[in-house]
Design goal:
elongated; 2 helices; mainly alpha
């Protein structure tokens, strides 16, 4: 499972960097979700892929923690 988390972490960081590259000038990072319509089509696609990769990464992290706890509890 660590391999999947590592790959998803790299993918998330790459698409985060691309999102920062494609975001419209003058929009702060913490307000990007409010200005999604101002993004170019490529920027919207990159932002959406970043969101999916981040959700997948967090899902894998929490799933791994749950599986580890379940394995420890059954010993």
């Amino acid at each position: 499972m660590d391999q999947y988390v590592g790959v998803l972490f790299v993918v998330t960081m790459v698409f985060f960097a691309l999102t920062m590259l494609f975001k419209p000038r003058g929009i702060p990072m913490n307000e990007m979700y409010q200005h999604f319509g101002d993004f170019s089509p490529v920027g919207r696609l990159v932002y959406a892929i970043f969101g999916l990769a981040f959700v997948g990464l967090m899902g894998m992290v929490f799933l791994g923690m749950g599986l580890q706890r379940a394995a420890e509890a059954s010993l």
